[in-house]
Design a protein that fits this description.
This protein is of the alpha/beta class. The protein has a six-stranded mixed sheet with strand order 4-3-5-10-6-9, sandwiched between helices. Helix 1 packs across helix 2 and helix 1 crosses helix 4. Belongs to the LysR transcriptional regulatory family. One of its GO terms (molecular function) is DNA-binding transcription factor activity. This is LysR family transcriptional regulator.
Length: about 300
């Protein structure tokens, strides 16, 4: 059995459609379907049933899912720990960071580290929130840097990870101004002519946060979803060109706001305050990673809950 089959199985159990699961796994849908079929053949039983609502786990599939997450995580951890025992662990620190933070926040943040010049090699892995979570679950990076909001928690096993706040940000609804400086797309909007919304794809951590807060706090906003993209930088460009409203990190949009290329149609009423968190496994890591964490987190108690409310 190929370990990737279990990872494909977990992706399909979460997303429930072949297209979305295949996209999350970065493979074509036909190849993804063949791997799911190969796993069911190896197991000797059906793991999913199909309906118009998508893929649903059979009792056997539900049983497998309850063990597969721990199994894949433990296998990757076993590999990492075996390498450490063999003395082949590199001194490089790997940090998985979401795209939005990789572009703007990470360079200044890491350069401000007191021991930046003596940290040794750093490996920045820039990807979507979903991909970063998978990287951490597999043990392929020592740390993850992401935006955080209590209404859209990271999808990591809470009992196995901890985190510390390393910065703060604000997600602002932004759009291009008209010639007189007023917003091209107003908020809260007009039900008869909704403002155009530029939104994030499901793999985006920012998208999870914005969706959760809009549904919880401002469900009556008149918005029409007109474009979906994976990168905040893409939405920033589209918003600047007048294509709609996007909730963008202030750290990313600062220059455009200062130059009045983007304005807040909500006048601060629909801002979403978020934290920037550095996440790590609770288990002990290599000496270089532990020294880095100690310098960042100081006396943080690792026995506490990793994602406090």
């Amino acid at each position: 059995m190929d370990l990737t089959w279990l990872e494909d199985f977990l992706a399909l159990a979460e997303h429930r459609t072949f297209s979305r699961a295949a996209e999350a796994r970065h493979v074509t849908q036909p190849a993804f379907s063949r791997r799911i079929q190969a796993l069911e053949d190896w197991m000797g039983t059906r793991l999913f049933v199909w309906s118009p609502q998508g893929a649903t786990l059979t009792p056997a599939g539900d049983f497998l899912r309850s063990h597969a997450e721990d199994l894949t995580r433990n296998i990757y951890r076993l590999r990492q720990e075996t390498l450490e025992v063999a003395g082949r662990e590199a001194s490089a620190i790997s940090i998985a960071a979401t795209h939005a933070l990789s572009f703007v926040f990470f360079p200044d943040w890491i350069r401000s580290h007191p021991q930046f010049g003596t940290l040794g090699p750093l490996n920045l892995i820039s990807d979507t929130m979903e991909a970063c979570e998978q990287i951490m679950a597999r043990g392929d990076a020592e740390f993850m840097l992401c935006h955080y909001h209590r209404d859209a928690m990271p999808r990591l096993e809470a009992s196995q990870f901890t985190s510390v706040v390393v910065g703060r940000d604000v997600l602002l609804p932004l759009c291009a101004p008209l010639e007189d400086g007023t917003p091209q797309w107003p908020l809260p909007g007009d039900p008869s002519s909704p403002s155009r919304l530029l939104s994030y794809r499901p793999q985006s951590g920012l998208g999870r946060i914005v969706t959760a807060i809009l549904e919880k706090n401002w469900p009556t906003l008149s918005l029409q979803n007109t474009l979906t993209a994976q990168l905040a930088a893409t939405l920033l460009t589209m918003a600047r060109e007048g294509d709609g409203i996007a909730w963008l990190p202030q750290t990313l949009a600062h220059d455009d706001i200062a130059a009045s290329r983007l304005v807040d149609p909500g006048h601060g009423n629909y801002a979403i305050e978020v934290q920037i968190r550095l996440i790590r496994p609770l288990r002990r890591q290599g000496p270089t990673a532990e020294a880095f964490w100690k310098s960042i987190a100081g006396g943080v108690n690792l026995s506490g809950k990793p994602f406090p409310a």
